[in-house]
Sequence to fold (50 residues):
Amino acid sequence: METARQADTRGNVVFDAQIAALCFEHGIDTVLTNDRDFGRFEPLRVQTLG
Fold:
């Protein structure tokens, strides 16, 4: 899983890498979340809730 390798992910962040990889594959460039770990997966932009 290249996305996880590039962001040097381990543990629970591997699941975030899977979500980020799906976003990249489907042309999604922004994720709406309070999970700051998504900031590792550039060029995915993170928009926080609230």
User: Anything to note?
Assistant: Residues 6 and 41 are 8 Å apart (CA to CA). Helices lie at 2-6, 13-25. The first strand starts at residue 30 and ends at 32.
